[in-house]
What we know:
By secondary structure, the protein is of the alpha/beta class. It has helices at 26-36, 60-72, 86-96, 103-114, 118-133, 167-202, 218-226, 269-274, 276-283, 299-312, 357-368, 384-393, 415-426; strands at residues 11-18, 40-48, 77-80, 99-101, 146-147, 165-166, 207-212, 243-249, 253-259, 287-293, 320-325, 335-338, 344-348, 372-379, 396-401, 407-414.
Amino acid sequence: MFFDRPVAGSKVLLVHIQKSNSELASTEELRELALSAGLEPVGCLTSNRRFPHVRTFVGSGKLEEIAQWLTDNPASLVVFGDDLSPTQERNIEIALQIRVLGRTGLILEIFARHARTHEGQLQVELAQLEHAASRLTRGWTHLDRQRGGSGRGQGTSSGLGGAGETQLETDQRLISDRIRRVQGRLGKVHQQRQHNRRSRSRADIKTISLAGYTNAGKSTLFNRLCVADVHVEDQLFATLDPTIRKLSIPLLGTAILSDTVGFIRQLPHTLVDAFRATLEEVSQADLLLHVVDASAPLREERIAEVNAVLREIGAEEVPQLMVYNKVDRLAIESRIETDRHCLPTKVWMSGLNGDGTALLLDAISKRLCNDVIETSVTLGPRDGKMRAQFFALGVVLKELSGEDGSITMNLRIQQRNLDQIQRNFASR
Length: 428
């Protein structure tokens, strides 16, 4: 293994560098990240610094303060709330004589703990390998060892080989080989996803994706809508593996709902790249449910962070329906907001207790159904199966029974669904 994971329960010192007033919640977020990684924060040092120090990120004065804190307090790991370059990480470790973990390494540890499916584990391993590839020099004392050949067949008269391959070069080669193998496996998963999307497209099945800041309640909402059992925990990145379920939408019928990894402030690019195949479910969706923790103090900043990641993965053009979740924490009623064309734009609801679920389903229906008509059809006594399909779609407004056994149904339905049902039964 080319990356050594910290032991669960390790005592850690958190170091947060404040760069602007817009990051007031970052210290608490860093603490939540550490807890989600199974670590035990025992202290936190902060500093205001506009630009990072080239060699040590924090500068010599702050580094001495950290060293003094470690002398007076027990800790086996120092966690920074920002990304560190390989050189900065190495210099800090040499100065402090203790293991150091940057933001990307910390999030990777969380991902490694929470990945449950084969695909999720492959994606995490790829991100870990790519992150470790630039940090192979850390802590090695044997990099000057070389393995030379015997010189046979190399055209040397002395019979002695050249300098050979250093241990560092060996490790780099092994990592490169492993990265290629993992990418190959993920490529097969990606091809299967593309095949599934093409099949859904041919069947004209609408796809809906959940996106949002981590711990916004996406998985709770997913379970509420699909009656599923996706893992839910009040923790950052509690759900990592992509999940897809069928969802019944009024007027529309069956749709596909996908839940993906949550976003976070300064989501490392290596993680976005590693999870790009999964995140394509978002960029290829017909509708994006942008789930927001309505009770979060900095919810507008979190919305901006999510939109930034959506732009990075090419999903900025996907139509969004804002879902303000956790209204139960605000003691306000669920409601729906529309634009000047009466198109739903925001839904306030609670995925926990289900308040506003019907409003959300109605809003999804109105955003995806663009050819809705109101009409009447008359069915005979033998048309029970067609009648059942209309009820299954939730399009029946009123039903009247005739004296001859016929049934007249007033419908509010998509024209394409009506045509499809009538064609299906006309051919029988």
